[in-house]
Design brief:
The protein has helices spanning 5-8, 15-41, 47-57, 67-77, 82-94, 99-112, 117-142, 156-159, 162-170, 178-186, 193-204, 215-225, 229-240, 247-260, 263-282, 298-306, 346-354, and strands spanning 292-293, 310-320, 323-332, 337-344. By secondary structure, it is α+β, with helices and mostly antiparallel strands.
Amino acid sequence: MLIAGLILGNFYHGTAQVDNYAKNKKISEDAAATYNKELKKDPESALPHWRYANIVAEFTFNEYKDAWKYYLKALDIDSTNADIYYDFSNYLADRLSEIEDAKAVCEKGLSFAPDNQKLKSNLKRFDELIEKNNEMVRLYSFNKTDKRSIPHNIEYSVIANIDSLNKVVQMTDSGFKYEMLLADFNNEKSLTDYQVYLLLIGYTQTDNYNPYNYNAIDTIYSLAIEGQIDEAIKNGEELLKSNPLNPSLNRELMYCYRKKGDENKAEYYHRRMLTVFSAMLYTGQGTCEKPYVTFWVREEYNFARHLGLTPTGQYSTGMCTGGMADKLETYNPMTEENEFIYFNIMPIVKKTMQK
């Protein structure tokens, strides 16, 4: 899910990413070997599963998302162990940002150990986080005159609160319904960066959103390179029905129409691409404290180029403000120095977890 180098290929990553993958693979294999060894010694114990779940939960690469399987295996064997419930709830909340699920795990643990102070403390923390999310949702219901006139200077904690934003775009009276914003976007009606950002959030809730599958876009690119412009346009406009916001797709259509000499159409798709990048730029500052929110890992590279930076191939994933984040090294020709851009990938994480 998170190690995009496995998906994007050598065009986007250099030797450093290959080395990083090899290092992660070694860490994973060593941990799995220890787990299997302990499991053989004591197959009826919950401890090997529990210990391995905690190890996997701390991985900074793709495999961390599988830790829940081993917590459940541990609980299948020792279903009344409050400490397992405690670790499991921390993993759900702090690594996956699944606060309501974390609360449910806490409540289950407290049903077996009602006096456990650690579980009580976590339950209080999760209740406060859920209430904070609900307060933000209520904020969008308050303005009855123009529910879409949200000021630009929103705190990053609000921008990065994907759970609350998912609720906002699903509210029938919020003014941010996906279908309505998409119609405005397609008709080039004036939308603020925040409205386009919520349009992107809404898109992640559709069945068509796939943050990794670029096969169809790559096919359009190949057709255009081979000179089959009309076929590329036909495929691209058909794909646009299910994938209307992807910058790469809009860029390919821009290129194709320029090749045909239709500058009006080319500029239409160019503006669509820039609108999405502008919304991404609005979400943060590219720092670990305020990483840009991204919806496709490959677009991190295109976004960097949009900013006039050149990706070097150095790429990693870790924790930043707002949750999981990608760290992309770039070369800045203005300063002649390398610098890092950080991307909040929680929309991608949540969609992948749903699947």
